[in-house]
Amino acid sequence: MERMLDCRGRSLAIGGETRLIGILNVTPDSFFDGGRFGTVEKAVAHAERMAAEGAAAIDLGGQSTRPGAGDDLPEGDEIARVVPVLERVLSAVSIPISIDTHRPAVARAALAAGAHWVNDVRGFQGDPEMARVVAEFGCPVILMHWDGDFSGEPGDAIEKIKRYFARSLEIARAAGVPEDRIILDPGIGFAKPPEQSLEIAGRIGELKALGFPLLLGISRKSSIGHALGGLPPGERLEGTLATTVLAVAEGIEFVRVHDVLANLRAARTAEAVLRAKRMYAR
To answer: Which CATH number goes with the domain that contains 213?
Structure first.
C-alpha cells in the first residue's frame, strides 16, 4: 500500500516499490566519493544527474561519518559546506532533499534554507535538541542506529537495535514528532564489524515488526568489501547491487546509494521477477 509523505511541500512515496535515495557528499574525506563534489557546481550537477536517473530523494551531507573520521569539524564549517549547495540544488531538482547531520544547529540552518527532512545518524540520541528542531519544522526524519557500546552489549543484534529505536522513538514522542514522519535505519557499518553488518543487512526485514518504513544504507561499505575478499570502495558496485536486490525481496522501503541508475535497474528487475513469481504462483 502506497502513501505519500509530505516533506515540507514536496512529496515522497512510501510503499509499493523500493525507492532510492541518492547520496550527495560535499566532504573532502568521505570513504568513497570524498572531494569529488566539493564545489557547488559539481555538487549541483551530481544532484541533477541522480534526479534524472530516478532518485526519489537526495541526502546531502557535509561531514564524513566514515570510521575514524572524528567529530571535530566546527558546526559553522559544516553549515558553510551544505547551505550554499542546498540552496542551488533546491532550485535545480524537484525531489525532496534531506540534510544528513546529527547536529541540531546544522539541521536548523539547512531546514531554514529549505531542506525538506533530516537524516539523523544518532537517532535523536546524540543531542536531544535535534528532536525539538524536527518537531519545530514539522519535517520527516530518518532515525539511524549508532550505538558506540553496541558490540559489547549482550544479546541478539536485531533485538539490541530494537531497544535502541525504542529509546529514539520515546524521545520523538516527547518532542512531538509524529510517528508517521519517521523512517528507521539500522546503521550498517556504524560501530559494527563487517560480519555483524552483513547479518543485520540480511535480517533487516525483522525490523518491520516495529511498524515503521525502513532504510538500508550499505552502498559500497566495508562490509561489502569484506564479503568480496577485501575489495576497495571503487570495486564494490556489484556487491551493492546484490544488497539492493535483497532489500527489494524483503520489501524494504528505501535504499540509500551512491550509484542511482545501476541500483534502480537492479531494483526494478527484482520487482518484476517477484511480480511474475506471485502471478504464476496463483
So the answer is: 3.20.20.20
